[in-house]
Q: What sequence folds into this?
């Protein structure tokens, strides 16, 4: 996006202020915060860049969108086409082959409908997907064979007595609970809802809310699990475009109970949902000078402590990325602004950023998408969203950055990193043109420094 003319990149309408004006204004008022430790920028990461999916997109509130299986030799990635086909693409690292299967053809061209993929303890893959708030039904399919996303059994469905329309799918399985599967999605009253299965998805319990704010006001949640006994939740009260200002919260589930970050008991999961005010507040979106919050990612470090990546929004043309991690010794969250995220992705969604993702294998690493200079928010060279890799060695206080993309002629958006990946650098993202969540022309790209066979056409 070229930013010197004060034009909106999608509508070509003149804005009141250019991005440079916003940055200048923020600096004058003291609202633009200096980024500590962002003084190092290394050369672009060497490695291989591959286009895995020619027509594909995703939102960021369903996980996992990419899983690595078969002793780390295969990766299966979920996406949805510009015409609405729900698909999974499997890349065999050793054979160099790519296989794409359609799970549901002509489903709905909406990036919210991407499957969340679970690798069960027996190796079988399960892919869950919904329409974007259009009906009360979860669809899912199970792979024909273990550790193999190239063949799938027929589609199954459930509604678990939930009448509210479904959006987003986030499945997990806990080995300490006899491999019980937990599925989280947006359902009852548009609030986060869950169901469980004790027989690998053959039957499901009645759906209940796990978090509740207000009727038809929807907390946005990112989930992470150790896959043993704990599931973590990072969430806001709702969408940041609502009349209230959204903050960021954390809580976790263990052994039937819900807790604050420091382990204080809140309630039994079976009894009632928690309210955001009962969880641990990480970021105050009401009084902070950098605006309200929206969550992007959560992962657990080697000590099983939560790490959260999120965005804040001073105004539509000034988004920031932040990084928070729990310190068990001090029993507090360490929270830092780490980079400028740039402008809104498109006019109708003032709070859609390019995206930030944690590396679940090493949450000291993040990948960000930004259409500005990440150090000060000034215009970048390409006018497009570029991908950067960041590394911290001091819990997020300072960062070393290196570009993954540069001088792009298309936008690079919504990076994700699957667990158990090869190489130090391994990131997927959407590359292309994004007009809105039902209007996109993007493909899925992989960049890695691992030695993998090139994709065979």
A:
């Amino acid at each position: 996006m070229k930013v010197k003319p004060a034009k909106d990149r999608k509508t070509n309408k003149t804005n009141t202020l250019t991005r440079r004006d916003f940055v200048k204004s923020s600096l004058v008022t003291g609202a633009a915060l200096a980024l500590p430790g962002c003084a190092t920028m290394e050369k672009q990461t060497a490695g291989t860049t591959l286009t895995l999916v020619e027509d594909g997109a995703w939102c960021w509130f369903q996980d996992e969108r990419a899983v690595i299986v078969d002793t780390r030799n295969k990766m299966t990635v979920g996406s949805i086409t510009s015409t609405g086909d729900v698909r999974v693409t499997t890349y065999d690292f050793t054979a160099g082959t790519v296989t794409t299967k359609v799970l549901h053809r002509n489903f709905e061209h909406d990036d919210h409908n991407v499957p969340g993929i679970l690798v069960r303890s027996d190796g079988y893959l399960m892919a869950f997907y919904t329409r974007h708030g259009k009906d009360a039904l979860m669809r899912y399919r199970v792979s024909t064979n273990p550790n193999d996303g190239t063949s799938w059994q027929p589609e199954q469905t459930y509604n678990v007595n939930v009448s509210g329309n479904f959006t987003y799918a986030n499945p997990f399985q806990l080995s300490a609970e006899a491999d019980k599967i937990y599925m989280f999605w947006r359902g009852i009253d548009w609030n986060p809802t869950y169901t469980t299965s004790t027989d690998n998805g053959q039957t499901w319990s009645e759906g209940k809310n796990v978090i509740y704010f207000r009727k038809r006001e929807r907390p946005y949640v990112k989930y992470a699990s150790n896959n043993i006994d704990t599931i973590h939740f990072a969430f806001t009260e709702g969408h940041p475009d609502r009349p209230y200002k959204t903050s960021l919260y954390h809580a976790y589930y263990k052994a039937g109970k819900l807790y604050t970050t420091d382990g204080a008991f809140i309630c039994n999961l079976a009894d009632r949902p928690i309210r955001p005010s009962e969880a641990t507040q990480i970021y105050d979106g009401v009084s902070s000078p950098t605006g309200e919050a929206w969550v992007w990612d959560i992962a657990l470090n080697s000590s099983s402590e939560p790490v959260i990546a999120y965005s804040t929004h001073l105004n539509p043309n000034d988004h920031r990325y932040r990084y928070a991690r729990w310190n068990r010794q001090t029993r507090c969250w360490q929270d830092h602004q780490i980079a400028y995220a740039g402008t809104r992705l498109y006019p109708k969604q003032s709070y859609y950023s390019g995206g930030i993702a944690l590396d679940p294998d090493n949450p000291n690493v993040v990948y960000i998408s930004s259409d500005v200079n990440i150090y000060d928010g000034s215009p970048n060279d390409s006018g497009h969203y570029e991908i950067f890799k960041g590394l911290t060695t001091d819990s997020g206080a300072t960062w070393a950055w290196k570009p993954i993309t540069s001088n792009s002629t298309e936008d690079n958006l919504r990076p994700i990193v699957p667990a158990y990946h090869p190489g130090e650098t391994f990131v997927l993202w959407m590359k292309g043109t994004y007009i809105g969540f039902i209007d996109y022309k993007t493909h899925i790209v992989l960049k890695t420094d691992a030695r993998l066979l090139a994709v065979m056409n």
About this structure: DSSP finds one helix and 32 strands in the chain. The chain has one domain: 19-448. The first helix runs from residue 19 to 29. The mean pLDDT is 91.
